[in-house]
Amino acid sequence: MSQTEKHRLKIGIPRALYFYKYGPFWTAFLDYLNCDVKISGPTTSVIVEEGTKEANSELCVPMKIYFGHVKELLSEFPDLDYIFIPRYVSSHKEQFFCPKFLILPEAVKYGLNLNTSIITLEINVKKNSEHESAINFGKILGYNGETMIKAWDYATRKYEEFQNKAREGDYIELLNELDSNPKHKRKKKIIKQIIPEAIRGKFPVNILVLGHAYNVYETHINRDLISRLQAMDCNITTIENLPKSEFSEKITINEQYHQYWQSEDEILKTARYCLSNGSNKIDGIIFLISFACGPDSLIQEIIMRDMKKRKIPYLDLVLDEHSGESGLITRIESFTDMIRREKFQ
Ligand code: SF4
């Protein structure tokens, strides 16, 4: 008996980590399967505090926030049938996701002593095709293979539509549209314009904001970085704005070091865009890095050296649960001022 013949399953999704990247896929996939999807609200100080209390202190901040969101979900929706926690191992045969994604379901289950069941979609193309992953997931819910393949293909189409819209649109707003819960609606923070109106738009600076989607679009932890830069008359480009073609060619670092981290591959390819097709479109790079992130600390050095060689201004901002607003504002103000002076002098 499928779940449509029983009751409509209530499945919770924490608004953290890969929700910022694959959330549109997951919600479409679960919608197709007639699940009642509940998403935790936007990150707050309480969520960060709770996550920090529960998670191992050596974890990166996005993981700590994830723990906080699971707790938040359970307190807002105590009657959930499942919490959806995918396991991303690999979606390209030669690469792996960060080990944190491999152990995420267990880390949450045992870290939080959960009583609510976790439902896991495992993506590991080294072992199963994507359709096989969907079929395995469907077995838990009582769906046959044909339905699961249709659900996967439907979600893939919806995800592509989302990505196409996101190339031009406001990514954060598009993500927020996935959650219809009125309690989770937040007014966009109004950031004071730094540049006087009379000269606004006359001396713009083009900044590439690099980093994982859960750092770039997590406005609580990055202190509204994108809006702040826009208030400083900066045009922003992110990974999500670039055409698919920028990601098709392989990254070669050197004979000894083969880049096998999947998300970092995307970041490196975006950095390469600044040195090739985008060299006259980008004036500077800001790389958002999570404190205690192993994969990012490896590629940070590579990106920094490349930008130095090509004299492209580069700034890295390390995020953790204690990141303060004033320090961040001072750093981005001086960075953009320096670029502007150089560009328009
Ligand atoms: S890639 Fe870095 S920031 Fe992301 S989960 Fe892994 S350690 Fe944390």
From TrEMBL:
InterPro entries for this protein: CoA_activase_DUF2229 (IPR018709), Dehydratase_Activator_Redct (IPR051805)
Domain of life of the source: Archaea
DUF2229 domain segment(s): 10-241
Gene3D superfamilies: 3.40.50.11900
Name of the molecule in the record: Acyl-CoA dehydratase activase-related protein
Organism in which the protein naturally occurs: Promethearchaeum syntrophicum
Organism lineage: Archaea, Promethearchaeati, Promethearchaeota, Promethearchaeia, Promethearchaeales
